[in-house]
Amino acid sequence: MVISHASSSAGESVYSTFSSRYVREELPRYRMPENSIPKEAAYQIISDELMLDGNPRLNLASFVTTWMEPECGKLIMDSVNKNYVDMDEYPVTTELQNRCVNMIAHLFNAPIGEDETAIGVSTVGSSEAIMLAGLAFKRKWANKMKEQGKPCDKPNIVTGANVQVCWEKFARYFEVELKEVKLTEGYYVMDPKKAVEMVDENTICVAAILGSTLTGEYEDVKLLNDLLVEKNKETGWNVPIHVDAASGGFIAPFLQPELEWDFRLPLVKSINVSGHKYGLVYPGVGWVIWRSKDDLPEELIFHINYLGADQPTFTLNFSKGASQIIAQYYQLIRLGFEGYKHIMENCKLNAAVLKEGIDATGRFDVLSKADGVPLVAIRLKDSTNFSVFDISENLRRFGWIVPAYTMPADAEHVAVLRIVIREDFNRSLAQRLLADINKIIGELDAHAVHAIKLSTAAAGGDGASKSAVDAATEAFKDLAGKKKAGVC
């Protein structure tokens, strides 16, 4: 969290069993200690506390990479002390970033000429990438409006209500109205027709998602492009498209190369992708690629020379580690197109196996699509006696971290469990997860029946059974049906 919470009590301390071999005094929890302690004690104290974290490999809430090859891990540790921004001091690292930008741009079919280089930057993740892309759209729109002698104080951006929170942050931080296309039950992505209807002269761009956070589904960028081309012709506007490919950008090119969602569409001007998701790199690294130099206003690029040479920079922060950029280059050359394709095919196959097993329970409706990000999003067919939040909470007993959440407006009544399939989630884990889900459902069923029997008896027999059932159900939901997990 950005905002931390600390106890007002100055007496709270940190305790560790084995560190007592090295230090006898208690350590204050929220204040820096007065004296140094041995390195062994510091390590032991922190290691003991971290034992209560979840297991990253069993964290099925997150799209973020949790395993890399040891060789890449060594490269990361060898370069963890390099600050990427020191380009003059680390010219090879800068060159590796440029190679990554060009490889990804070609993967996304950017129209790069024979003697041209791709336009893009590395970021700490897709959130920063989206901020940068949004700023470029806003500045281009403002410049155009000023040239036409029109006001430029009320920009807006059109998205679906299913966008990740970073889009809401962009809108709020940079004073852009966020116009959201509401969802409907059974259709949990942005409707391109409704999106284009919301476009006006002040729209800086329409954002489409290649891999919805909620269900993994790809939005129809091709249809959005075609409809927007027609609207631009009718109105004389030139509203562009940004594709948020945070998850799908490293999946679709390998599994559905014929799918038109990228720079093959003329209105797509920029694309972001997360290297630390299906780019298969530890967090945090992201990328934003522009169609051409004309799509990134020159006035947004800063030139600095106090690190030794003229360096162009377009980022929200300054210093950042170089290790994740190097790791991305490792994955791109180590795996190549063939390697990424095999990994994504395996993820898709494991998702299909898990979906089949969940279907076999007869208790769930599957909301996710086969063609999309490899995840399984499910809702209960009958939530009378327990909810998906109960299942999510109980899965923690077995070490699994599976989020439960409600859909955005206007589908808030739909509550979902989402299981993300990453490279390190294999068939054996899928079978174990299915067994644990079935065990939990059986326990929750038995608990509900027992609670109903007790309530019925307490209410005076069969005559009051209906109200007793209702009372037991409500009591059970109050106890265990609260939302416990969010969307990552």
Textual characterization of the structure:
This protein is an alpha/beta fold and 488 residues long. Helices cover 39% and strands 14% of the residues. It contains twelve helices and 15 strands. It has helices at residues 39-50, 70-78, 91-107, 126-147, 165-173, 192-198, 221-235, 252-255, 323-361, 388-395, 427-458, 465-480, and strands at residues 13-14, 27-28, 119-123, 156-160, 177-181, 203-209, 241-244, 268-274, 286-290, 302-304, 311-313, 364-366, 375-380, 404-406, 415-420. The strands form four sheets. It has a seven-stranded mixed β-sheet with strand order 3-9-8-7-6-4-5, with helices on both faces. Helix 6 (192-198) runs parallel beside helix 7. It is globular, with a radius of gyration of 26 Å. The two termini are 13 Å apart.
Determine Rg (CA atoms, Å): 26 Å
Number of helices: 12
- Count of β-strands: 15
Name the strands of the widest sheet in spatial order.
3-9-8-7-6-4-5
Overall average pLDDT: 90
Helix coverage percent: 25-40%
**Helix-strand makeup class:** alpha/beta
H/E element sequence: EEHHHEHEHEHEHEHEEEEHEEHEEHH
Estimate what percentage of residues fall within beta strands. Answer: 5-15%
InterPro entries: Glutamate_decarboxylase, PyrdxlP-dep_de-COase, PyrdxlP-dep_Trfase, PyrdxlP-dep_Trfase_major
Keywords: Decarboxylase, Lyase, Pyridoxal phosphate
Protein name: Glutamate decarboxylase
Catalytic activity: L-glutamate + H(+) = 4-aminobutanoate + CO2
